[in-house]
Amino acid sequence: MTFRTNLQYLRSRRNMTQEQLAMLLGVSRQAISKWESEKAYPEMDKLLTICDLFGCTLDDLVLGDVAHPTSPESAAAPVGVVDVATATVVSDAGTDAVSLPKDLTGYDEHRRRFALLIASGVAAIIASVGVAGLFDPEHSILGPSPLNDFLAFACICVGVIVGLALLIPAAVSHEAFKRRHPYVEDFYTEDDRGHESRLLAAGVVAGVAEILVGIAIVVYAGDVLGIDAGWPNAIMLLLDAVAVFGFVYFGLRRGLLNIDAYNEDAETERRKREGTLPFSARLAGAVFGIIMLVATIIGLTLLFLGVDDHLFWIPWPIGGLLCAITGIVIGLFKDRLDR
C-alpha cells in the first residue's frame, strides 16, 4: 500500500473527513487532498504527528500496510485487548490493529483548568459578599466602628477583582484554544464519562447540603439568637460560595466532555469570524443580544430607582425565556430564512 492508500484507510477507520484531519494537523483541507492524490507529500513533522494520531509506525505508514502492520509492537499485542503503550486495539482476528483516539491537542488539561478558573472566579465573588457581611453595621465583628462600611465595600471590591482576574483569562484562553484547535477528536471513553457523572452527582449533593446548612444557621440565628444580619448571613454566603464552586466546577468538567458540542461551537466561531454564518444564526444572535440588553437596562433601572429591591432581578429570567422562545421560532423557519 502507498502512503496515499494508508492515509485514506486510517481516515476511514475513524470516520474522519479530510477537513477534520486537516484541523488536527494544522494544515488546510487542500493539503490533505493533495497528499491523498499524490500531488504533494507531507513534511516529516506532519508524518510523525499522523503516526501519533493513528497509533502506527512511520515505516508502516510510508512503506508498509497499516491494515496489516509489521512492527513488533503491534504484532506482540494480545488479541482483543487494549495495548496501553501503543493505544491500539487488536481485533479478535488478530490481523487488524485499530488505534484509539489520543489527546494530541491538550484538550483534557485545558478542560480541567478552564473549569477550575471559572468556578473559582464565581465563588470568589460570592464569598466576598459573605465576608463583607461580617462588617454589617448592626452586627459587625468589630462592633460599632466607622470602618465597617469601608471594610465591607473593600471586601466586595477585592472579591470582584479576584473573580474577574480568574474569569476573564479563562474566557480568553478558551477562545484562543478554540481558534488553535477548531476540531478535537473525541478520545473520551464511557468510563471517563461515567467517572465525571459520578463526580458531578457528588458535587451537587454536597452543594445542596451546604446550602441547607447555611439556611439552617440563618434560621437558628434569627429565631433563637435574635440575630438577623452579620455573621449568620456571612456563613451562609460562604457555604453558598463553596456549593456554587462545586456546581460550576463539576458541571463544566462534565459538560466539556461533549466533544461534538465543542466542535460545533468552534465551527460556529470560525464561520462567524469568516462572515459565513447562515442568516438564521446571525438573526438569532442579534435578537438574543437585543433582548438581554433591554432586560439588563430594565433590571438596573429597577435597582437604582429603588422600585422594589426584591423584583429587580426578574427581567433577566424573563429575557432568558424570551430568548428560548425566539430560538424555537427561528429554528422552525430556519430553512426558509437561510435560502
UniProtKB/TrEMBL annotation:
InterPro entries, per database record: Cro/C1-type_HTH, Lambda_DNA-bd_dom_sf
Residue ranges occupied by any HTH cro/C1-type domain in the UniProt entry: 7-61
Keyword Membrane: yes
GO MF terms held by the record: DNA binding
A Pfam family the protein falls into: HTH_3
SUPFAM superfamilies: lambda repressor-like DNA-binding domains
Annotated TM spans: 114-135, 150-172, 199-222, 234-252, 279-307, 313-333
Keyword flag 4Fe-4S: no
Keywords of the record: DNA-binding, Membrane, Transmembrane, Transmembrane helix
Protein name per its UniProtKB record: XRE family transcriptional regulator
Organism: Bifidobacterium simiarum
